[in-house]
Design a protein that fits this description.
74% of the residues lie in helices and 0% in strands. α1 packs parallel to α12 (235-241). It contains 14 helices and no strands. The chain is mostly helical.
């Protein structure tokens, strides 16, 4: 598999995450951790089908430390994310939580064989500015922000960036291992649900279809394609390109008639595209050995 192909596969995760908001709205009133348990359970089933083509013996050769790492990354991120928004349900929390693409770019410079250039950093900052316009387009409410919630939002950004970048160091670990990550995350999410939430199921057939779609895509297959991108693709370019997720998500909500279109969206699109172009230019002028 070439680096370009792996990067393209990794970007499909960003495309799937663009549907996360719409499908999550459609899954209401299912509480977050129950939704997590259902979706990761579906994602784990997808992984079992994927793994069956090579044989389940491939999973036995993976260290328990890798399984612990992957489960901590997936479950830890979502636990911190949901808890942060419970404490501080503000745009600022969302913006801080969305620092993870920038951290991926910065952390990637610590990896063997990777060269972090100035254009990568500038591109990430420009794209972050575009994402900030989208997240904060409803206005800033510093008075309603809660420091613990913002701190947890920062923690979830660090967690996902660390999970993504460290996955590169596990390049020899088969992507099928994500199957176990998903199933373990589903089990832990169920425990968190039973401890913290009241059970509420989807209200109708459309709600169940939204849950199924989440498990098949944004909270399922996306983690497998992201793993391929992080291990074999252009990690800096993928980090910057990840800022397309909030933009694409907003465009999907506009198309669905849930969010109004505004000039801010156009400016944000230009910033995100410009940031990604800078990162792509930097990657093209600095070939890396894998």
């Amino acid at each position: 598999m070439t680096q370009s192909m792996a990067t393209a596969i990794g970007f499909t995760a960003v495309l799937m995450w663009a549907l996360l908001a719409l499908l999550t709205i459609g899954s209401a009133p299912v509480p977050p951790f129950l939704l997590n348990a259902l979706c990761f359970g579906i994602g784990g089933l997808i992984g079992l089908v994927w793994t069956a083509r090579r044989g389940f013996g491939v999973l036995r050769g993976v260290s328990w430390k890798v399984y612990a790492f992957g489960t901590l990354g997936l479950f830890g991120y979502h636990f911190l994310y949901f808890t942060a928004f419970r404490i501080a349900p503000t745009a600022e929390t969302g913006l801080i939580a969305y620092l993870w693409p920038l951290f991926i770019v910065l952390f990637s410079g610590l990896l063997p064989g990777e060269r972090l250039r100035g254009q990568h950093i500038v591109g990430a900052l420009v794209a972050f500015a575009g994402a900030a316009l989208i997240v904060l387009r409803g206005g800033v409410d510093l008075g309603g922000a809660s420091a613990p919630g913002l701190l947890l939002g920062f923690g979830c950004a660090i967690t996902w960036a660390a999970y993504s970048v460290l996955s590169r160091r596990l390049g020899n670990v088969p992507t099928e291992s994500v199957t176990v990550f998903c199933l373990a995350t589903a089990a832990l999410s169920l425990v968190a649900h039973l401890a913290l939430e009241q059970t509420v199921w989807p209200a109708n057939t459309l709600g169940w279809l939204a849950v199924l779609a989440l498990g098949l895509g944004p909270v399922g297959l996306a983690f497998f394609t992201w793993d391929i991108g992080m291990k074999k693709g252009d990690i800096q370019l993928l980090g910057v390109a990840s800022y397309a997720a909030p933009l694409l998500s907003t465009l999907v909500l506009i198309a669905a008639g849930i969010t109004p279109a505004t000039p801010v969206i156009g400016v944000a699109a230009l910033l995100i595209a410009g940031g990604a172009a800078l990162a792509a230019r930097a990657s093209a002028s600095a070939p890396k050995s894998l």
